[in-house]
Amino acid sequence: MASERDLYQPPQEGLRARLYEIIFEASTPAGKAFDIALLIAILVSVLAVLLESVASLRAQYLGLFHLLEWVVTLLFTIEYALRIYCVGQPKHYIFSFLGIIDLLAILPTYLSLFLPGTQYLLVIRVLRLLRLFRIFKLVRYVQESQVLGTALYASRRKITVFILGVLSVVVIIGALMYLIEGPEHGYTSIPTSMYWAIVTLTTVGYGDISPETPLGKALACALMILGYGIIAVPTGIVTVELAQASRHAEALRCPHCGRGGHESAADYCKYCGGGLSGED
Amino acid sequence: MASERDLYQPPQEGLRARLYEIIFEASTPAGKAFDIALLIAILVSVLAVLLESVASLRAQYLGLFHLLEWVVTLLFTIEYALRIYCVGQPKHYIFSFLGIIDLLAILPTYLSLFLPGTQYLLVIRVLRLLRLFRIFKLVRYVQESQVLGTALYASRRKITVFILGVLSVVVIIGALMYLIEGPEHGYTSIPTSMYWAIVTLTTVGYGDISPETPLGKALACALMILGYGIIAVPTGIVTVELAQASRHAEALRCPHCGRGGHESAADYCKYCGGGLSGED
Amino acid sequence: MASERDLYQPPQEGLRARLYEIIFEASTPAGKAFDIALLIAILVSVLAVLLESVASLRAQYLGLFHLLEWVVTLLFTIEYALRIYCVGQPKHYIFSFLGIIDLLAILPTYLSLFLPGTQYLLVIRVLRLLRLFRIFKLVRYVQESQVLGTALYASRRKITVFILGVLSVVVIIGALMYLIEGPEHGYTSIPTSMYWAIVTLTTVGYGDISPETPLGKALACALMILGYGIIAVPTGIVTVELAQASRHAEALRCPHCGRGGHESAADYCKYCGGGLSGED
Amino acid sequence: MASERDLYQPPQEGLRARLYEIIFEASTPAGKAFDIALLIAILVSVLAVLLESVASLRAQYLGLFHLLEWVVTLLFTIEYALRIYCVGQPKHYIFSFLGIIDLLAILPTYLSLFLPGTQYLLVIRVLRLLRLFRIFKLVRYVQESQVLGTALYASRRKITVFILGVLSVVVIIGALMYLIEGPEHGYTSIPTSMYWAIVTLTTVGYGDISPETPLGKALACALMILGYGIIAVPTGIVTVELAQASRHAEALRCPHCGRGGHESAADYCKYCGGGLSGED
What we know:
The structure is a homotetramer.
Chain A: H1 4-8, H2 14-24, H3 29-52, H4 55-86, H5 90-94, H6 97-104, H7 107-111, H8 129-135, H9 139-154, H10 156-180, H11 190-201, H12 214-230, H13 232-251
Helix pairs in contact in A: 2-3, 2-4, 3-4, 9-13, 10-11
């Protein structure tokens, strides 16, 4: 796992080097303080967007919300500029996943000057928490999400086959229900019937549309029992892959001391400190 | 796994052989172009059927939808005739699974001349995508669906026992709720009560019918907790079978070089190329 | 697995022995014909009960339904009398599980002479299908249900702990929602709130009662995410037990020839025919 | 597992020792009688709280409910005082988990003298059943819940990552639906939209709010299929951890006689009686 440090090639000395240490790393007191301030700013600004959408609160505190939004946006803009300034290769940062999120976190406020309503897109700031996830060295959590990610990645083909199969069932059942129930019972078109089929197959069951003819109810019952049965399939897929990912992680052995039981994402042996990849 | 090629006995030379290569195979540029054209035609025609069912779009673009439907149907009819013409044994093709789907994909348009409404059955064209699935040599996806298929086939008896059990519960609970709640609370007959029981047991819960008497609510609670518990059963069944199918695939060893780890659907060893079945 | 034969001690000769062979066994042509007639009688009579409950059909065919009900009931009564007559130890049969179901299958018709409505209890006849299950020697299906049964039995304590935990959550959340939402939003009492909590926790979600205050919605969200998480628990329990039951069945070895891979419910080795329990 | 006995340091002799034996232990006839009386008092008092909340019953039996509540509360208060009196170190008891529950079980009645409505908080008495759980020496049930607890504890990080991921999806989808559907279709604010997103993602689906625009329905379909897929993740996590906890329990071997197959919570070998931890 290459660290963020290597990706952006930090400058070796001077103001830029000190700024880099504060903004991108968390090993110095100043860096930690910066991260905590960032965490608070993100949470406050997302909360402000959520609460601003409540009509009664908007009527009362509109000025406060706007002030907060602009203060946080300006702070994030300054932070974004500093990040570009202090990394060795700005391009790498700007087009990295986290760099794009940093940009998307400030754009909507400026856009809202021209297009009203876009300020609600600011909730994308919640994705900035991903940055803290990495910076705070929440290593074990990152490892756990890697095990989950590995299992989901390994099951991608089985899950694709499964979803294509589900969608074919949805198209065919949707067309049948449109013919059986018809627009007078709420099945106004095949796409609407497909929406109903997905609502039923996933066992959500809003009840905004529901079958009313005996034949429609019988077909719905068949679809529900089918849905009940096939919910077992993705569960089975993910469980088997998770079990294999766990076994693989357990079987990992240190090439130096020979001891096993390391986390699958560990780079170094937890007993002797030697590199687990054998390239150290 | 016998290939489609062997099933239909392609002609060895002449126009039929060239047509066969284009229509049934994807190894030549012409064959690939044909497959892509087929993919687009299928998606466009299914989309047209879906959108035609939307009242506002039908009012506006009725002519366009009809034109599209007839153009695609004529193309598919020509394709169907050519397929019959160029295979060595037309009977094998006509009564094969894919051959029947090819026929069903063109019939509803002709039927709609006599029976209005049948054009919505054209969504069956979505099944024609199965053909592309095979032709495009999406080998790994086919393998994955075989692992899923093997696991589901191996669990067929357990699942049958399970569904028979569920249906018995549904009949008995349905009759009890009909007696307890009665027609005045929406449980107008035992079949309707059974529909409600299935809606509840599968956790869909439309809410079009729901218990209103205290005793009915108590019975519904018991049924819901039961449904919550027994949803674990099919999941457990499929997971165990999937784990076994995966283990079996991993344990498969080449009789020539002795190496394992082959896909369960592989015919040849990926290391030495020898036949895995040992019959090569 | 002791057979039904041993339980009821069939008479050795005479009319009773011949009747026993026809009614309790399926190895002779007459026995098979009896079983098929029984299957048809059960399905027809259950179907008649279901359809009689539909108001429009009852109005039209009331006479036919009553005739059918009485014909089937008389046939079942004669069958019940014959069963008692031909078994060696009538008490064993009368108080056996299947014997009680046979009695319950005829009682409601006679009761309906005094208590109207009880004829709907006739759906209990659906349980008579269990008898056919055994008689038809659907051995593999019985074995599969035994594997399921073993797994569920082995998980009974974990599932009990789980359900007690769920019920405690339901009582406490139900009381909280009653305080938060109150009767004016449909939460008319704590038992009603508990009904809502079960509907929510099991992800059924009828929508007949749903939270309307912000605090109630927040608590409902917490409950839903909790329910989403804990649905994993029974699934995990059953899967682990099913995997162990499967492994156990695979590990079973014949004491005579030493070969394994027998069904967990097999009494004899499928390779050499020797008794698997080693007591043969 | 340290026993409750060691925690509270029971007095060695005198009245306090005899009281301790009756109240905290269940090995003498008096102790067992006390436990059964406690069980009945808890169930009766919780049932009284539940039924008192039903308007029709409250109107009719208000006096009876109040009498019951005060009688049980006084009994529990005396019991609480005696418990403090007879343990060696009252502080240990008062601040233990069970001690706090014992206090919470009597407080609401006294509070209801000043704050009406608080008597419904008495349902917390249901937690007092935990005490019986331990006292009744339901050892195997405690062991089973420890296996469940171990599995859930081992999966805490994977589940945290999973829930954080789900919440991020909920915030972003909630904001999008607020923009797409708007207040006129019931999505009155982003928090309300988030409530809808959780109702949908967990497949509860009340139907109190449901998408009405085509774009909203399409997004809802994507969310439902996503929810259908990710319900597999916690299930997979818990199953794998449960399987490991089970394997671990099976692998546990006695250091004295070497035999395995002990329950994970066993302190002593069930064959030779030696301490399993090897410290005995």
